[in-house]
Specification:
The complex is a heterodimer of chains A (333) and B (260). Chain A is of the alpha/beta class and 333 residues long. In chain A, 30% of the residues lie in helices and 28% in strands. In chain A, the strands form four sheets. Chain A has a seven-stranded parallel beta sheet, with helices on both faces. A five-stranded parallel beta sheet of chain A has the order 15-14-16-17-18. A three-stranded antiparallel beta sheet of chain A has the order 8-9-10, with no helix packed on it. In chain A, helix 5 (226-238) runs parallel beside helix 9. The mean pLDDT of chain B is 91. The chains are: A alpha/beta (333), B alpha/beta (260). At the A-B interface, helix 3, helix 4, strand 7, strand 10 and strand 13 of A face strand 3, helix 3, helix 4, strand 9 and strand 10 of B. Strand 13 (193-200) of chain A pairs antiparallel with strand 11 (162-169) of chain B, so a sheet runs across the interface.
């Protein structure tokens, strides 16, 4: 296998296994490599890299190059930079994708200075726009209202990638790949930074509200009964969405006014709004027009909501919901 | 103890609107000190207060960028150095890291370099690691608290879903967040000193650099386009043999378009 000029991914190990972000990057690297008939090569460093190496192959790497050394037991930006820079010099990658975690960003900045190559930070997309191996990196500018396209003129093309942007491909334990061990001389080297204490922060169960949640599910007259509405509410909860209703359900006193979405209720701007059984009266439309993506499910093919929803499904919401939940959960793993 | 604080002048854009013709409408005043840099200055002055030392503020930018250092002098920094040379315009993080590392060397090196975690304009956070690598220094990034004794810096930071306490031997680069401290207010005497302060201005030659290694020619990234995100088209109907099939097709479509 030709191991030079490939799409490389720097793999982060968390608790002995691949970090979720590393899996996301492997999925993207696989797409990029397939587009140019290249290989995906994972770079990994640590005291014990066996498990992560196997996992990297199952998630899409064709080969893994591992630097294994007891000095690398904990991440250290000086030592890890030394290890990955050595691999970059030997394998001359076209690209190295690095996860935009705190450690990954430190590594990226150091590698850029060490190798004297350009770096694009916190990318949210990447694609080939030409025939050669030049990648176009996309990252937000001005608090996300605009985006910039950036190319690097040096090799390897170095970038850190934000998390939860790409989806990894599902693990395939049957995938085969080569694991190569490289040694780097760490004689006399010691970690530059010592972690003396670690306190896990319990993830607070964030209260989902229709005005702050990324995903909001809205229920309308199509729920038919109060129990129907409760079924939609339970669905919202199971997919991690906030729950709101259209005006008629408040008028029926099935839901409190605080839940009402619309111009006389709350104006919302979630990333995704899923309207179930809502016809899309003007007063509701004005309350949801700032949503990033509107998905509507309604039995009536002529419901006005299909004119301004981005995606529509004509059908019974109670038939759509279970499958939607199943598919969403599948993607989230 | 030699303490250097890196600060940056940024556009004071409080908000940006995109006009119908896709032009940018910038809302706000022309320029200001990168907000989190105040905390880097405070961190440096606090170390000086506690164990002594000299605090030098260092910035790179146009002639006006020097003015951004006066607030630092007002709260106790000793001097400021402006690296300003039109040949450096358009420097990316690679070229900027090189320039600032050379400037720190010219200052006689540093035991501690403080920076803000990120700038509000470039927003890359890549300068602290770049400088640490070039100067062979330890790095603690995104510090939420900092304390320094004669030889060691200890800090807390968020990492791996928890709070790490980390320790490094000096010399070290520390990038700080807004949580790291509360910047003090200047006193009359400080304000007077700030008004009178005269800053050294260094050019490419003063740093012993070749003009080709800075500015656009020394940069390895180029911005090819600035664009507004395209709105998603409306009215796309998802078909399926049954509503459940349609739901599955919808999720497929959303996944393919990276919308989910």
């Amino acid at each position: 296998m030709e191991l030079k000029q490939n799409i490389c991914v720097y793999i982060e190990i968390a608790g002995g296994a691949l970090s979720p972000l590393s899996i996301e990057l492997l999925g993207k690297a696989r797409q990029l490599a397939d587009a140019k008939s290249k290989q995906v090569v994972a770079f990994v460093a640590g005291a014990d890299t066996a498990k992560a190496s196997q996992e990297a192959i199952s998630y899409g790497a064709d080969a893994v190059v591992a630097v294994e050394d007891s000095t690398l037991a904990a991440y250290d930006s000086v030592l890890y930079t030394k290890a990955i820079a050595a691999l970059a010099e030997k394998y001359e990658p076209s690209v190295i994708l690095i996860g935009g975690s705190p450690d990954g960003r430190d590594l990226g900045g150091r590698l850029s200075a060490q190798l004297g190559v350009g770096l694009v930070a916190d990318c949210t997309d990447v694609r080939f726009e030409g025939d050669d191996d030049t990648l176009t990196w996309i990252r937000p500018a001005y608090t996300g209202k605009l985006f910039v396209k950036i190319q690097t003129t040096t090799r390897p093309q170095l970038a850190t990638i934000s998390d939860k942007i790409f989806h990894g491909t599902p693990a395939d334990p049957a995938r085969k790949g080569e694991i190569i061990k490289e040694s780097v001389d760490f004689a006399g080297a010691a970690p530059s930074v010592k972690v003396t204490n670690f306190e896990p922060v319990e993830k607070e169960a964030e209260e989902l509200t229709i005005t702050t949640a990324d995903i909001v599910v809205g229920a309308g007259r199509g729920v038919q009964t109060e129990d129907g509405m409760k079924a939609v509410q339970a669905f919202a909860q199971r997919i991690g969405a906030a729950f709101g209703v259209s005006k008629p359900l408040v008028d029926k006193e099935w839901a409190p006014y605080e839940w009402q979405i619309g111009i006389t209720g709350k104006k919302i701007a979630p990333k995704i709004y899923i309207a179930l059984g809502i016809s899309g009266a003007i007063q509701h439309k004005l309350g949801i027009q700032d949503a990033g993506l509107i998905i509507a499910v309604n039995k009536d093919p002529d419901a006005p909501i299909f004119k301004f929803a981005h995606y529509g499904i004509v059908g019974d919401l109670f038939e759509v919901m279970p499958e939607l939940e199943k598919q969403i959960k599948k993607i989230r793993g | 103890m030699n303490i250097v604080v890196l600060v940056k002048q940024v556009p004071a854009i409080s908000d940006i609107e995109i006009a119908k013709d896709n032009n940018l409408v910038r809302v706000g005043a022309p320029s200001m000190l990168n907000p989190v840099d105040k905390h880097a200055i405070e961190a440096a002055v606090a170390v000086k207060d506690a164990i002594g030392g000299t605090v030098t503020i260092l910035t790179m930018g146009n002639a006006l960028a020097g003015e951004m250092m006066r607030d630092g002098i007002a709260i106790g920094a000793d001097k400021g150095v402006l690296v300003s040379d039109e040949r450096m315009a358009g420097s990316d993080t690679l070229a900027t890291g090189l320039v600032l590392a050379k400037a720190i060397e010219k200052l006689g090196g540093a035991d501690l370099v403080f920076t803000g975690k990120r700038s509000t304009d470039g927003d890359t956070g890549q300068i602290p690691p770049a400088i640490a690598q070039r100067l062979g220094m330890a790095l603690i990034s995104y510090a939420n608290s900092v304390s320094v004794d004669g030889t060691t810096v200890t800090a807390t930071r968020l990492n791996h879903d928890g709070i790490e306490t980390v320790q490094a031997q000096l010399p070290a680069v520390v990038s700080v967040t807004e949580k790291s401290n509360t910047p003090r207010s200047p006193k009359i005497r400080g304000k007077m000193a700030a008004k009178k302060a005269v800053f050294d201005v260094w050019k490419v030659e003063d740093l012993g650099l070749d003009a080709a290694s800075v500015g656009k020619s020394g940069s390895a990234t180029k911005v090819t386009e600035l664009f507004a995100p395209e709105p998603n088209p409306v009215g796309v109907m998802i078909e399926g043999a049954t509503p459940a099939d349609a739901a599955a097709n919808l999720v497929k479509e959303l996944t393919a378009k990276n919308l989910l």
